[in-house]
Amino acid sequence: KMAAAAGAAAAAGLWSEVNRCGQNGDFARALKSVNKILQISKDDVTALQCKVVCLIQNGNFKEALGIINTHTKVLTSDIIAFEKAYCEYRLNRIESALKTIQGASQQTDKLKELYGQVLYRLERYDDCLAAYRDLIRNSQDEYEEERKTNLSAVVAAQSTWENVVPEDLGLREATYELCYNSACALIGQGKLSEAMKKLQKAEELCRQSLSEDSDVTEEDIEAELAIIHGQMAYIMQLQGRTEDALQLYNQIIKLKPTDVGLLAVIANNIITINKDQNVFDSKKKVKLTNAEGVEHKLSKKQLQAIEFNKALLAMYTNQADQCRKLSASLQSQSPEHLLPVLIQAAQLCREKQHAKAVALLQDFADQHPANAAEIKLTMAQLKIAQGSVTKACMILRSIEELQHKPGMVSALVTMYSHEEDIDSAIEVFTQAIQWYQQFQARINYSCCVFQPKSPVHLSLIREAANFKLKHGRKKEAISDLEELWKQNPKDVHTLAQLISAYSLVDPEKAKVLSKHLPSSDTMSLKVDVDALENSHGATYVRKKAGKLTGDNQQKEQGQGEVKKKKKKKKGKLPKNYDPKVTPDPERWLPMRERSYYRGRKKGKKKEQVGKGTQGSTTAGSSELDASRTASSPPTSPRPGSTAAVSATSNVIPPRHQKPAGAAATKKKQQQKKKKGAKGGW
């Protein structure tokens, strides 16, 4: 009895210690006291509960969950459901946390709060929105502002990831968190300018809120603003201001924020800006997307986008096997998604395997008819790149939902014209016009009233007529023009085209139709010529008649007289011109072509005595020198001689080149001098 009494007294003291430590927030010390209590009574429910709470407060969620699971008989679900669900939530076992919450016998406010967080992580935004609305409606405590912030975050997620138009919650944006979430919702709607203003307001509120705390440094404020600045940079990127966005992204990375999710998103966005350029920087940035815990911080679509960009980066860096591996993994996760198969096809094209790429796309189109249109457009592009324009046209015409679109019609007609297949081009026009006629007939039947033909239909008929006229199909063009004129008899332009076409086929019919043209009186335009000439766009503006001073008037009159008296200027005559002598009629011909030209005189051939430098000899005399033989060694050129050429080059510059005869003569002269020098100079 005395031992039991001593144990009870010790336990009471330990409980007092636990209570005091809990109030002071010293959970590590409280845990020691709880462990001592459990040594006295190992199945004490309250002690086990306290131990779980202490472990949670110290961040030991795995150990806390282990205590709960090993004492299931004592710690039943109605006692410790919240703690168990919270540990599972913090350990990222979201599905298990949801089951624990749903299996609780009583839904307390704490469980409802956690339920909302779990639904948000599971991306069940509709259920999450309903849960938070219920909490806000039925709760009145100091956490109301946090609940409103979470509610706005759900609306922003719906707008961003589900393309849902956000409803006006009527929340007063008094905090920077609410402003930030509102900006995210606007980004989801594409209202980028409004979103930027909201983010600027959020930044201002954040600075005001944190600057009130004297313990908060400027570095702490910048770290808190990092997520706001990241969203600003994203808006800049969407607006095409990539340089500004890149600069802001890099500033955030230099701050080294602790949020791995934020770093992963920023790194991914930088990779998308780099594309196939600056791949070395992209390879460094991609490491930030592989940080531990990133998968628990981002949504499924964000993680999917990062994986797509990893596959593309592998393709740009010529890592073919890695690219195939990543794209195949993505395709297995989302079999209906387009991007994985497009990346695989792009990789095959880089390897010059175009046929395999087309076959891969065709298989995907057959398996997923809903996405066949985009796949077939890619297939057509590959065929065009291979030069198979006709096959590309066949693929495009197989896309039934796009056959009648004006853009598709224009592309097909252009391609068929390039291939000089006019019949197929006209067939494309005909099919599109028939589709619109059938569509119009369905509208008329359903509405039971007359509906005028659509502008697209009429524009197609006009384009078809112009095309047929251009390629000599006059009769077919006349049929189209008559249809247009029938729809609008007041269209003078169409009537003029019709008359022009008939004039080439049936002139009498053209005369009959010309009677329908309006008279010249009705066609005349009442135009104020003065106003037209004085308009801003006139190339010539008539000077307004104004008062002229006497000098100006005389000047203008003088200029007029000069213009009247201006005569043709006389040509110059030679200095020896004699007006009494008749000019030579053949003076304009070259001398060789004149009738009296007799050629050069071939008289006495004078020796070139006295020409050249003193002591030089002629080429003829040097040839008569018997002392010079073919076996004579070549002589070195004299110092400073212009004939010297660098030993490293046999090319003589053009302005140093001389006729072959002159060079030979000079060389012989130099050799003779060299030989004569042996006499004892």
Automatic annotation (TrEMBL):
<protein>
    <recommendedName>
        <fullName>Signal recognition particle subunit SRP72</fullName>
    </recommendedName>
</protein>
<dbReference type="InterPro" id="IPR031545">
    <property type="entry name" value="SRP72_TPR-like"/>
</dbReference>
<dbReference type="GO" id="GO:0008312">
    <property type="term" value="F:7S RNA binding"/>
</dbReference>
<feature type="repeat" description="TPR">
    <location>
        <begin position="226"/>
        <end position="259"/>
    </location>
</feature>
<dbReference type="InterPro" id="IPR026270">
    <property type="entry name" value="SRP72"/>
</dbReference>
<dbReference type="InterPro" id="IPR019734">
    <property type="entry name" value="TPR_rpt"/>
</dbReference>
<dbReference type="InterPro" id="IPR011990">
    <property type="entry name" value="TPR-like_helical_dom_sf"/>
</dbReference>
<keyword id="KW-0963">Cytoplasm</keyword>
<feature type="region of interest" description="Disordered">
    <location>
        <begin position="542"/>
        <end position="681"/>
    </location>
</feature>
<feature type="compositionally biased region" description="Basic and acidic residues">
    <location>
        <begin position="575"/>
        <end position="596"/>
    </location>
</feature>
<dbReference type="Pfam" id="PF17004">
    <property type="entry name" value="SRP_TPR_like"/>
</dbReference>
<feature type="compositionally biased region" description="Basic residues">
    <location>
        <begin position="665"/>
        <end position="681"/>
    </location>
</feature>
<keyword id="KW-0687">Ribonucleoprotein</keyword>
<keyword id="KW-0802">TPR repeat</keyword>
<keyword id="KW-0733">Signal recognition particle</keyword>
<feature type="compositionally biased region" description="Low complexity">
    <location>
        <begin position="627"/>
        <end position="644"/>
    </location>
</feature>
<comment type="similarity">
    <text>Belongs to the SRP72 family.</text>
</comment>
<dbReference type="Pfam" id="PF08492">
    <property type="entry name" value="SRP72"/>
</dbReference>
<keyword id="KW-0256">Endoplasmic reticulum</keyword>
<dbReference type="GO" id="GO:0043022">
    <property type="term" value="F:ribosome binding"/>
</dbReference>
<feature type="domain" description="Signal recognition particle SRP72 subunit RNA-binding">
    <location>
        <begin position="543"/>
        <end position="599"/>
    </location>
</feature>
<keyword id="KW-0677">Repeat</keyword>
<feature type="compositionally biased region" description="Basic residues">
    <location>
        <begin position="563"/>
        <end position="573"/>
    </location>
</feature>
<dbReference type="GO" id="GO:0005783">
    <property type="term" value="C:endoplasmic reticulum"/>
</dbReference>
<dbReference type="GO" id="GO:0005786">
    <property type="term" value="C:signal recognition particle, endoplasmic reticulum targeting"/>
</dbReference>
<dbReference type="InterPro" id="IPR013699">
    <property type="entry name" value="Signal_recog_part_SRP72_RNA-bd"/>
</dbReference>
<dbReference type="GO" id="GO:0006614">
    <property type="term" value="P:SRP-dependent cotranslational protein targeting to membrane"/>
</dbReference>
